[in-house]
Each structure stands twice: as C-alpha cells, then as structure tokens.
Design goal:
Chain lengths: 112, 116
C-alpha cells in the first residue's frame, strides 16, 4: 500500500538556521507529493507540491524536490523565522485517484 | 476569499448522543474528504466523495459513522451513538479531482469533538 514516513519531531531551531525535514514514501507508479503546514488551531494549508520526478516545489522560501530514485521529498528552507513554527505534514496522492496519505507530522519550533 | 466552512467549531457531548458535523465545500469543487486527527493516529481518511458519490469510506467505522452529501454545497458526518474514543478533530477538505491526479485539497478549520 501507499505510505509516507516523516522525520520524527519535535524539531527546535534558532531563527535564521537551515531547516531540513526528511520525508520518504512508498507508492506504486508516479504519485503526486505534497507538503502541508498546520498552524495552531487551524486546518492544513498546502505549502508546496510536485507532480513528477525531478520537479521542485517551492513557496515562501521552502523547497522540496521529487526524487524518484530515493523515493524522497525532503523539505528545506535556508533561513527559518519564528513565524515558521507549525506542524509540517508530508503527503502523497497516487496516480489514478485523489486520496491523500499523510505522514505523522513534524512539529517545528523556531526560537528567537 | 473561498474557503471550506465547517460547523460547529467545537462540540462537547455525552457518550451515546448523536453528533452531526457539517461542511460546506468551496463552490465548484467536486471532491470532498473527511479526515480525523488524533495525537495517537495522526490524520486518518474516513471518507471521500467525488461528484457527491462516495468513492471510499473504508476508513470509517460503519456501525456508528455515516457520511453523506445531500447536495453539492453540504457534506455531513454523523456519529450515532458517540463514544469517548471518537474524541478528535474532524477535518473536511475539498478539491477538484479528475480521477487521475489530485489537485490541491483545501482544508476547513476543523470540528473539535469531545465525548464525555
């Protein structure tokens, strides 16, 4: 079946530090890959996505590259801010339907 | 500003009572999802509709849960009877799907359910 394995949290970084949150997946065929972000008390919001191998999704300084050879979609940001504190979810949607399978989420806290 | 609207935002109920959660998807979207979020299980897909037809409800306990779309502007999730283990945040999401690729799923703010 389809699954997403995410880096365990929580992660605490100082402001302006470099961020990496690892994500690997298991799926048949060519899934679409997503990163969602959840701020306290809110629903999930799409942060970025990639739909085919070697695509790079980017938004708000965050980036992730679809690596089929390593079945990975790691999230990176060069310089994090306090406002980036949230829970980040990696997800996939298999080719052929719209169902999203989520990872367990990684709680990120940025300290000033 | 289009958004998915869920009501109520918070619900506290006694064990055994019926609970109904409502969702208004974004106008024009044809797919609707119901997810449950708990600390232990994370995000679980309960049900999924396309063009108001249920495509997958395998994640939903059938004996007490039911999900429907009476029309394109309303999706409901009912629990009868409710149990303390149903306490969770329930999210509705909508999107536009073709059955081939998923477009972005837009999430509502969730209904926090507490069963005492």
């Amino acid at each position: 079946g389809n699954s997403v394995t995410q880096m365990e949290g929580p992660v605490t970084l100082s402001e302006e530090a470099f961020l990496t949150i690892n994500c690997t997946y298991t799926a048949t065929g060519y899934p679409s890959l997503f990163w969602y972000v959840q701020y306290p008390g809110e629903g999930l919001q799409l942060l970025l996505k990639a739909t085919k191998a070697d695509d790079k999704g980017s938004n708000k300084g965050f980036e992730a590259t679809y690596r089929k050879e390593t079945t990975s979609f790691h999230l990176e940001k060069g310089s994090v801010q306090v406002s980036d504190s949230a829970v980040y979810f990696c997800a996939l949607s298999p080719f052929g339907n719209e169902k999203l399978t989520f990872g367990t989420g990684t709680r990120l806290t940025i300290i000033p | 500003d289009a958004r998915v609207t869920q009501t109520p935002r918070d619900k506290v109920t006694e064990m055994g009572q019926e609970v109904t959660m409502r969702c208004q998807p974004i106008l024009g979207h044809n797919t609707v999802f119901w997810y449950r979020q708990t600390m232990m299980q994370g995000l679980e897909l309960l049900a999924y509709f396309r063009n108001r037809a249920p495509l997958d409800d395998s994640g939903m306990p059938k004996d007490r849960f039911s999900a429907e779309m009476p029309d394109a502007t309303l999706a409901t999730l009912k629990i009868q009877p409710s149990e303390p283990r149903d306490s969770a945040v329930y999210f509705c999401a909508s999107g536009f799907g073709t059955g081939v690729r998923n477009t972005e799923a837009f999430f509502g703010q969730g209904t926090r359910l507490t069963v005492v």
